[in-house]
Amino acid sequence: MANKAEWTTSTAIWSTRVSLARMDDKWTAMVVIALGRGTRRFGDLRTKVEGISAKVLTETLRNLERDGLVERHVHAEMPPRVEYELTELGRTLHAPLQAIGSWAEVHAEEVLAARAAYDTGR
């Protein structure tokens, strides 16, 4: 019988870090939210995720694909058509990120006011 590693706080923290490491940048959340609305081509994604460069979008999509959150579909056409969509795992991430995005929209003015108050109080 194989020895199973005992669960400890440090293994839980390590597992969480691995799972959440992709959420470390704003572009990941924005791409997942954009793909939550359906399959998109690269150019469509770049339009939806305002401000992202082609290089950063490419890197973000590759990382999401590596983590099993996004699938890339290449269609044998001329010119080739490439589409991206969330995997089943990626769809489970969409809802919490959408909720965070909604919270940010609702509370944006409050956050900006708090920042201004903090900055003037220094």
Describe the structure.
The structure is a single chain. The chain has 122 residues and is mostly helical. It is 61% helix and 11% strand. The protein contains 5 helices and 3 strands; from the N terminus they run H-H-E-H-H-E-E-H. A 3-stranded antiparallel sheet has the order 1-3-2. A hairpin with a 5-residue loop joins strand 2 and strand 3. Helix 2 packs across helix 5 (88-120). The chain is globular.
Offer a quick outline of the entry.
By secondary structure, the chain is mainly α.
Layout of secondary structure:
Blueprint: H1 9-20, H2 26-35, E1 40-41, H3 42-48, H4 54-66, E2 70-75, E3 81-86, H5 88-120
Antiparallel strand pairs: 1-3, 2-3
Helix pairs in contact: 2-5
